[in-house]
Design brief:
The chain is built from 18 helices and 22 strands. The chain has 573 residues and is an alpha+beta fold. It folds into three domains: 1-6 and 142-186 and 198-334, Sulfite Reductase Hemoprotein, domain 1, CATH 3.30.413.10; 339-418, Sulfite Reductase Hemoprotein,Domain 2 (Sulfite Reductase Hemoprotein, domain 2, Alpha-Beta Complex); 421-572, 2-Layer Sandwich (Sulfite Reductase Hemoprotein, domain 1). A five-stranded antiparallel sheet has the order 1-2-5-4-13. The two termini are 32 Å apart. Bound molecules: siroheme and iron/sulfur cluster.
Length: 573
């Protein structure tokens, strides 16, 4: 029996000498704005993607110019908590080296876009000087660990954020390459001195994502992650975590072997075992994940192929003890709590809506300037939410009036009064920077929402939160397959429309219409929204209603996600 060939990336990792490759040499080559193909893969582990401005492609092609290459940098922010100083530094670098905007991502990280090759090293160095880093923000390793910014249960939250940081630190790659290349760290003599105790030479088969949630809020969307911990709080104290494994969103149009998957909740561990469990789940995936086909290499496929029961028994072997039975928990929603909140210690938190997570100044709405002015006087911290929003957190009672005045001065004080639909929206970056985008998302969803708001207003749904997400392709960076309404790019101005995801992100949606033209979106959705407004049961969420009313089937775990996609054109595309 012949062994299947390893994917090309496995060779790149093996040859890279623990992620060094020829990145340093490539940075020094001023004849091009790009890096070699192999280094483009390796640089992801260092937190960067080589991109080009796709809006400029036709013109540059016409003039026979190299693509307008630049680099995106993703800054890890474990648990989404950033200090005021870190905010100010990120803001400064956005002007000094990037495109003048800060992107708050769906995994509570910062992204800077448009950094040219000659500025990359100094930007990474300055990020590290601000006590942040970019290592493992991307690549076949554990990514930014998410944790919900829960101001209500601040004592529990403190413990949970510590767990997120501990997991993040424990799973950070140990290679000296990052320090060597970006921070002028000392060169190690042989790669032997530079081992990766957890990952080994070839790291993981694919990216790996971890979250922690404190119910009833699922605002970090645990079911879309490789591994999640659901905090179990008894009598106000954190006692442990339920463990969920095997979630993920990405799929490829027309390829039924790829699909989004909801994580399985397989057991419970005491609070002091959380890092151990995280490590062992990673090890099982390291050893059993598919390294031959990158479209089949996420943990969700390992578990789908071998069953959750197999995974639990293997994990118990790696742990040397058994996970306990799952404890009861309940999630109510996966959205953010906007506006002002006071916590049990008398601190204040203001959650600001940030459309598409893009922090920038626009005529009439100088949000980036306003946040900079707040950061200058703010004595608490900033918390990035997994819904691409921003919490100005832990404002002391004596500072609240000052922060409030600045919010008002810069027009941010009413951000939470927008329609409930807009407040429940997410759009991935997509064009012009994302190399994989098939259609617009961040630049287009605001307009779609404006037209849908007319319908929502008309039928009396202005205050009803329906989760709505748009992505430029089926990789699912905005987690569209677990929203109640999901648009997934198919091609320029064309989207597949998915309906019926769970309001708390607990159920996948189903394809309702394929190839909806951008201009037809309102016409397709308006009758369904009207129907919902008149026929819904008391407290019934939109995602549940569309299933009851027969627009789509419910997805149950283990179901074939593509079961109701029977369109030949779709499958052959
Ligand atoms: Fe993502 C690839 C942006 C969250 C699934 N994602 C990309 C790249 C890097 C495109 C590329 O490979 O060339 C995008 C860069 C665009 C740009 O110009 O910035 C990109 N992903 C994003 C962000 C910035 C979207 C956003 O608007 O916030 C999010 C950054 C998160 C972070 O801080 O780490 C982002 N990506 C996600 C999520 C959501 C999540 O993790 O909760 C998912 C779905 C969950 C999952 O992983 O299954 C996601 N991104 C993907 C995939 C599909 C992976 C798969 O298993 O099939 C790709 C493509 C790939 O890896 O090959 C991808
Ligand atoms: Fe790019 Fe697709 Fe992710 Fe959007 S969903 S950022 S288009 S990879």
């Amino acid at each position: 029996m012949s062994e299947k060939k390893l994917s090309a990336n496995e060779g790149i990792k093996t040859r890279s000498n623990y992620l060094r490759g020829t990145i340093a040499e490539g940075l020094a080559d001023l004849s091009t704005g790009s890096l070699s193909e192999d280094d483009q893969q390796l640089i992801k582990f260092h937190g960067s993607y080589q991109q080009d401005d796709r809006d400029l492609r036709p013109d540059r092609r016409k003039h026979r110019l190299e693509k307008a290459y630049s680099f995106m940098l993703r800054i890890r922010v474990p648990g989404g908590v950033s200090t005021s100083h870190q905010w100010l530094e990120t803001d400064r670098m956005a002007d000094a080296y990037a495109n003048g905007t800060i992107k708050l991502t769906t995994r509570q990280a910062f992204q800077l876009h448009g950094i040219i090759k000659t500025n990359l090293k100094r930007t990474i160095k300055e990020i590290n000087d601000a006590a942040m880093d970019t290592i493992a923000a991307c690549g076949d390793v554990n990514r930014n660990v998410m944790c919900n910014p829960n101001p209500f249960l601040s004592s529990v939250h403190e413990e949970v954020i510590k767990a997120a940081r501990d997991i993040s630190t424990h799973l950070t790659p140990q290679t000296g390459a990052y320090h060597e290349i970006w921070l002028d760290g000392e060169k190690v003599k042989t790669s032997e001195e530079d081992e990766e105790p957890i990952y080994g030479k070839t790291y993981l088969p694919r990216k790996f994502k971890i979250t922690i949630a404190v119910p009833p809020s699922n605002d970090v969307d645990i079911f879309a992650n490789d591994l999640s911990f659901i905090a179990i709080v008894e009598e106000g104290k954190l006692v442990g975590y339920n463990v969920a494994v095997g979630g993920g969103m990405g799929m490829t149009h027309g390829n039924e072997a790829t699909f989004p998957r909801i994580a399985d909740v397989i057991g419970y561990c005491p609070a002091d075992k959380v890092v151990d469990v995280a490590e062992k789940v990673v090890l099982v995936q390291r050893d059993f994940g598919d390294r031959t086909d990158r479209k089949h290499s996420r943990l969700k496929y390992t578990i789908q192929d071998r069953t959750p029961e197999w995974f639990l028994s293997e994990l118990n072997k790696y742990l040397g003890y058994d996970l306990e039975p799952v404890r009861p928990y309940e999630f109510k929603d996966n959205g953010d709590r906007y506006g002002w909140v006071e916590d049990e210690r008398g601190n204040f938190h203001y959650t600001l809506f940030v459309q598409g997570g893009r922090v920038l100044d626009t005529p009439g709405y100088p949000m980036r300037t306003g946040l900079r002015e707040i950061a200058k006087i703010h004595d608490g911290d900033f918390r990035l939410t997994a819904n691409q929003n921003l919490q100005i957190a832990n404002i002391s009672a004596k500072k609240r009036a000052e922060v409030e005045a600045l919010l008002e001065k810069y027009g941010m004080h009413q951000s939470h009064e927008r329609s409930a639909l807009r407040l429940a929206s997410i759009a991935c970056v997509s064009l012009p920077t994302c190399a994989l985008a098939l259609a617009e998302a961040e630049r287009y969803l605001p307009d779609v929402l404006t037209t849908l708001e007319e319908t929502m207003e008309e039928v009396g749904l202005r205050h009803d939160a329906i989760t709505i997400r748009m992505t430029g392709c089926p990789n699912g960076c905005g987690r569209p397959f677990i929203s109640e309404i999901g648009f997934v790019g198919r091609g320029p101005d064309r989207y597949n429309l998915y309906l019926g995801g769970g309001h708390a992100g607990q159920r996948l949606s189903k394809l309702y219409r394929q190839d909806v033209a951008a201009e037809d979106i309102q016409a397709v959705l308006a009758p369904i929204l009207k129907h919902y407004a008149t026929e819904r049961n008391e407290g019934e969420h939109f995602g549940d209603f569309v299933i009851r009313a027969g627009y789509v089937q419910a997805t149950v775990q283990g179901d074939d996600f593509h079961k109701n996609i029977k369109d030949e054109a779709y499958l052959s595309s």
